DNA sequence: GTCTATAATAGGATAGAC
DNA sequence: GTCTATCCTATTATAGAC
């Protein structure tokens, strides 16, 4: 039950709590993780946690905010932007996957608790993110860039890939985030694009932007 | 906190426990769900649960078994079969998605607890399922039916779509399971097939088989 | 900012009547 | 097979010294 790779260098206690808690939540669930286990992983005593966070819930709440706020901002920006919707979706996907791949927290547990009544106040921002993402997809289908697939299905598949990547990455930042991001975004676009030869143009435009 | 749609007809108590528990586990996590909440949803008293299951853990363990045993059997059968690997993957995917879409339990929480030390004894079968699925994918890449993509990535994307479908379906059997199954399996194959025109032949062969 | 000691309660499980 | 009553442990959080 020792900490993973957090002890070296000068990482503040509050930050180490977030990192170790995120790993334990991913492995044992939010409710399945006791404050003692978190404290053990951080190598402090259990009550010392409460100097940094008022409750255990607030540790999870901060992880949720970290996950949702930046990502929602980028999705909303791309949703409001002009030009090819397929290109905007690609840009958003690459950004989100890079974020996931470089995040020092294991955000696996976030999706698992977001429907828990205990975190009801965090649902609004999650829904805003979903709306923004969905509007880009709708535009890509309506404009004819994507196959005439069920937009619900396309949205779901995209979310599932992102969620899967979060679980896979597990808060261990990888050096080749941009490669992973391109591979996954390419996988999604290949499944959805009407004309797969457009992929090259989209990637080129994303580079230059 | 009333039960959802389980009270009508003659559903045995043990069965209702599995159904209601699966929904609560999905929403609040295994550890976040108390035996009192399960009992309330089933409309019995909390100690009555222990007439049907020796511990709360055993309820979850049975849901894990339900999820993994049948699916693993089908994946292993297709992995051992002859012929086009792309076709065998399509058959497996359609079967698995139909299973998910018709299952009366919300198996969302299974993936979330399978790495919990409390369910360590359930990991072996999960790993066997993963190996079988992986071997079909490897064959499809090696035979040249699939693009020369990272097989790790392909496997992950497939698992993520299946996992996403489990969360989406949430134990509410849908009438059009075969349509959903075809759509999702098509999404995956379109992203992976070297020649997308093969899709028609694969579907035709799957029908006749 | 971390510690020891402890309060307060929630939750899993048992005993035994009906 | 379900009930009431209850035990017992684990867990969150607080108080107050250093």
Shape assignment of chain A: elongated
Helix content of chain A: 55-70%
The counted number of beta strands of chain A is 0
Query: What CATH architecture label of chain A applies?
Result: Orthogonal Bundle
Largest sheet of chain A: none
Question: What letter string, H or E per element, gives the SSE order of chain A?
Answer: HHHHHHHHHH
Q: State the end-to-end distance of chain A.
A: 45 Å
Largest interface: A-B, 31 and 31 residues
Q: What CATH first level of chain A would be assigned?
A: Mainly Alpha
**Number of separate domains of chain A:** 1
Instruction: Determine the CATH topology of chain A.
Output: Tetracycline Repressor, domain 2
> Regions of chain A with pLDDT < 50 over 5+ consecutive residues?
1-8
Strand fraction band of chain A? under 5%
Tell me about this structure.
Two copies of one chain form a homodimer. In chain A, helix 5 (85-102) packs across helix 10. Chain A is built from ten helices and no strands. Chain A is mainly α and 209 residues long. Helix content of chain A is 68%, strand content 0%. Chain A is elongated, with a radius of gyration of 19 Å. Mean pLDDT of chain A is 93; it is low at 1-8. The first copy, chain A, has a single domain (61-207), classed as Orthogonal Bundle (Tetracycline Repressor, domain 2), CATH 1.10.357.10. At the A-B interface, helix 8 and helix 9 of A face helix 8 and helix 9 of B. The first copy, chain A, binds a DNA duplex (18 and 18 nucleotides) through residues 13, 34-36, 44-52, 54-56.
């Amino acid at each position: 039950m020792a900490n993973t790779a957090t002890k070296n260098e000068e990482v503040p206690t509050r930050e180490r709590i977030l990192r170790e808690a995120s790993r334990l939540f991913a492995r044992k669930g939010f409710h399945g993780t006791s404050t003692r286990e978190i404290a053990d992983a951080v190598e402090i005593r259990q009550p010392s946690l409460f100097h940094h966070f008022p409750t255990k819930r607030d540790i999870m709440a901060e992880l949720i905010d970290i996950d949702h706020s930046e990502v929602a901002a980028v999705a909303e920006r791309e949703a409001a932007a002009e030009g090819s919707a397929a290109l905007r979706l690609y840009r958003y996907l690459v950004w989100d996957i890079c974020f996931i791949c470089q995040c020092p927290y294991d955000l696996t547990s976030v999706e698992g608790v977001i429907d828990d009544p205990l975190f009801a106040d965090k649902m609004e921002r999650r829904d805003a993110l979903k709306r923004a993402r969905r509007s880009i997809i709708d535009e890509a289908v309506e404009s004819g860039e994507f196959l005439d697939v069920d937009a619900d299905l396309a949205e779901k598949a995209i979310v599932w890939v992102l969620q899967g990547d979060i679980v896979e990455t597990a808060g261990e930042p990888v050096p080749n985030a941009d490669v992973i991001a391109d591979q996954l975004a390419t996988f999604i676009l290949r499944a959805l694009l009407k004309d797969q030869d457009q992929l090259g143009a989209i990637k080129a435009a994303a580079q230059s932007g």
